[in-house]
Amino acid sequence: MSAPDAPAQTPSVLLFDVSETLSDLSPLGDRFVDVGAPDHLTRTWLATLLLDGMALTAARAQAHFSQLAIGTLQSSLTGLALNRPVGEAIAHIMAGFDELGVHSDVPGGLPALAALGPRLVTLTNAEASVAERMFERAGLAGHFDRHLSTEDAGIWKPAPTAYAYAAGRCRARPAEMMLVAVHPWDINGAHLEGLRTAWINRTGATYPSYFNAPTVEATSLVHLAQLLGR
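-> structure tokens emitted (230 positions)
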């Protein structure tokens, strides 16, 4: 998929997904290995967590990230030959969220994007406090106007209500906003609510044709700043 031309007007709000878009989740694999579980189980667990959260969203029920994370960990770890009790293993893995860092392009990309003039806001399906602490550790907290969680919206992304909630909190029209995400399902959901979108494709993946295409495709946040600054 070739990258579309950047929008002619810089959005007034850049709305960032957090998990995997800004945060690097790969260290969680080390936590699985620490407790005697295989590293590859990390991806299965995260996929199950997302699947169950979206199932609740499709049923118009609220999904609580921590509750889902712990519950799906319980299922994923049960029956394995761990080196500690399951409860202790879960606590060790969950503690990893408070040690996550950002992707290598984020420290350079955020200030470059902020310099273009938009407000920078995060919208996560997890607790907003997790994002706040991560950016404080990274020394990047000052670039953000606010951190939002869909837990306060009552429903996860990609439900339209989640993006509408963010627009309301930012006092901006959806058309004035741009979602920045690595997840095509997130891009598609924001598009349906009227936001412009930026797909961060760090891996050279192919965008799924069954989702609405992003407004712009970039290989990093630095690249996105270059595209929006044209």
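Residues 188 and 212 are 5 Å apart (CA to CA).
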